[in-house]
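**Protein of interest**
===
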Amino acid sequence: MPGPDRSPHRTPHHPARPLVRHERRARLILALVLALLVVFAGRLVQVQAVDAEAVAQQALADRMGMEQPLLAQRGRILDASGQVLAASVERRDVIADPQIAAEGYEREDADGEVVSEGLDGAVADLAGLLGRDPADVRAALTRGGGSRWSVVARDITPELWAQVKALGVAGITSEPRFSRTYPGGDLAGNVLGYTGGDGDAGLGGVEAVMDDELAGTDGFQRVERGRMGQAIPMGESQRVEPVPGSDVRLTIDRDLQWTAQERATAMREQAGAEWVSVVALEVGTGHVLALAESPTVDPNDFASADPAALGSRAVSDVFEPGSTSKVVTAAAALEEGVVEPLDQFEVPYTWEAANGQSFRDSHHHDLERLTFAGILGESSNTGTVRVGERLTREQRHDYMRRFGFGERTGIELPGETPGILAAADDWDGRQQYTVLFGQGVSVNALQAAEVYATIANDGVRVPPRLVEGTVDPDGTEHPADRPPGVRVVSPGTAQQVSTMLEGVVAEGTGDNAAIPGYRVAGKTGTAEAPDDRGGYTGYTSSFIGYAPADDPQVVVAVIVQRPTNGFYGGQVAAPVFKDVMSYALTARGDLPSSEPARLYPQTW
């Protein structure tokens, strides 16, 4: 029986294991591919069906870019008659996208052929049109660092922007803004104040105090943009319109303000004074008709102004009122019944009080026989002290407080000082007398004018006001709140003081304030000017009065600080009063006095 074939040419039988492994690997790969396809399909279904809206919204949001503010136009400031004192005008900032603008641009020549200008052409055309240095324009168009925003020019008119846009330089756009302008230059600059560099925030004067009303509310817009930042035509957009600010109407009379400011400047130069303030108030309403100062500021160029001129000295600077405040002593003494206008006094040049304090008049004179009206008419310090000592310390202090000393008027201007009025218990042996003739107490010009407005208004004190009201963009007017008046002295006392003040102008130290045809009541003042370093340097000269005295309409106060060419109030302040008051009466149409004054005799 034959044995097994052991021929070396026979190969033993083995299973096909490599084929099995390949099949398994193929099945595994197929399974993975199918799994991935299922995942991708599921994700596709999710993106296109489930999350389609969210994805689209995100894509749109990415294309919409950042919000572009739409600036609200700031409201105007108007005078009492509606003339514009401050307004905002549209301006444009020219902006370049350096990644686009650096490529230059193409334009059509006269024959309609397209000409490539390139960067050099863009620089030359823009520089020529904008009036800028070509090197600066080139730097703006080629700004590096991957920037897509560069300022080519600021604050150009819309008309000039239209010409720039017409060039067709790629990557050149504009951003709108508003610029604040003051048509009158420095007219009422101390009152109006000024705004920030962009004209969008009040930083001084009425601009600051009424900023909420003037500012308005900005809007915004967003537009769909392409990869290079260009707006997509017919793309999505969002827009919220800005709300313009309200106009603010002042009580200021523009023409009277100009006259007062011109006369203040002329007197400052003539007298060599440090500064001059002129205040005009309407009797009964407290409306500030003029608040003029010299030097002042042009709000169009406030950055180059003297910092001392940026505010309003009429409300922020204090001075000792001197003899103009003797009306407070006179009103208090008459109201308390300790004196009558015709009471007789022997008035010496010097007088010594019971506590040994000595006082003198402004100029030497022999013993004079004066009525109380004559004491006020001649502005006698010694006579005033003799009458005033009949009042207690508390009465003296109380009447000064009633007339507004030591407290702010509430005028709509920043930086108002309350003045300086020490408590009666803090007065020393001399100050208790000097306050009777306006030394040892300090006021601002508006407070000083308010005293005379109170006398002219039959003894009722009405707080002065500068803002008449606001006007909404739709024309709706909102009158400003008016605080009620407060009676300070009786009508009878006010009339007695008024007649005495007429005598000051007709027969006393205020003759330079007389106005032909009108009865004028007023008082001169000449006081030593306190120095910031202590002591006194120079004088504060003043005249305050009203007219027509028989039917008071307007109060004018003139304060001249440290004049060097003459210093008596009747010499440097009264002539300014006369000019300003004369203009006010004529411009307002106030009729001349119909009856002559019946003055109190000043001597006996």
